[in-house]
Specification:
There is one protein chain. 69% of the residues lie in helices and 0% in strands. It is built from four helices and no strands. The radius of gyration is 16 Å and the shape is globular. 13% of the residues are buried.
Length: 104
Amino acid sequence: MTKELDQKLSSYFTLTERALKKITINKNVTLDAEKAALDFLTMAKNYYEDARHFQKKGDKLTALAAVSYAHAWLDAGARLNLFNVKGDSELFTVDEAWQQSSSP
């Protein structure tokens, strides 16, 4: 398990490092908030279902990665104020003050 964990960690660190280097801020973005919220929610649900699938197969490591992705989509949606999470800082990386300050 340790070797598999080390390999998965290395893979995810490499993937994330590459993504961080590639990203630039899109200054010309136009956003349909409802469409974006539905997309984020769909991605979260899909990753959650994938996690359950991997768990049933006994692949707990991949299940953990997938459920982490699922929650990341939800958390990102909360941070963007696409989801009203009522300042729930236990489930999301937001608080009431931050969410109010990020509202239009």
